[in-house]
Prior knowledge:
By secondary structure, the protein is an alpha/beta fold. It folds into 2 domains: 7-82, lambda repressor-like DNA-binding domains (434 Repressor (Amino-terminal Domain), Orthogonal Bundle); 87-283, Endonuclease, Chain A. Helices cover 50% and strands 11% of the residues. The protein has 12 helices and 6 strands. It has a 6-stranded mixed sheet, sandwiched between helices. Helix 7 packs across helix 8. The longest helix is centred in the first third of the chain and has 18 residues, at 7-24.
Amino acid sequence: MAIGESPTAKRRRLGLLLRKFRTEAKISAEVVSQHMDRNDAWVSRVERGRTGLRRLDLERLLDLYGVDGSVQAELADLAKAGRERGWWSNYSGVLSRQYSSYIGFEAEASRLLTYDSLVVTGLLQTEAYARKVLQVGAPEEDRAVIERKVEVRLNRQQRLTSENPLRLWLIFDEAVLHRVIGGDLRAHVGQLDHLVKMAELHNVRLQVMPFREAGHPGMLSSFTIMEFPNDPTMAYIEGLTGDLYEDAPESERYRVVFDNLRASALGEPSSISLIKEVAADLRRDT
Length: 286
């Protein structure tokens, strides 16, 4: 499957359309679940794009909603694409369902607006830094599992340098510059140097939230806003007990927060200068 053709995003698009048809038909999720002999949770998973849909089930839903045949044929193709497997399915043995879903959405996104307060975002991590992050985050995991996860992270990064590259606007807290993961100074300095290099790409913008900004909305949570070429914007919030996805209009509050962060953070030239300064200080200690 080519870059930008994500089955996860196709399922979401289908789910959004099905929810629209159900709402327009003024049919409750409870009525749908009874009609399909399923529970309400199944209806929710389908409309949120969290599960694939068989053609027979799709046809029954569309008949219930009164959708005509020409539209049914188009949606059948969308449902078929949603049942395909993305490249990340080859790593299903080491990836959680939540992480796989995120990768699927990321693969279709045209732009990400990201705020990170703890570590460098995965799309800009070096191999050595990613390995340290994964080892510290899951010290009980086998080395082979860690290496497979590192592969996934590096594969994701190919979108930044592809023919139609993903646009990334990253803001992270200054603490990220000083937090040496696993005590590996060499890996950390290499990561800072990599940030400077990646910021040279026309599709990557990078800002640092300085310590002097004692209070700002990003203190509450790291998050990513995903923009898609054909679908509504989505906000993703990673949590310790589970991931949260917010569709419009709820996702718009995260855009407001991001705009406030962007205004409070250092400008791009000053951010790069700070990264270089911290790297130079740490390099003297390696």
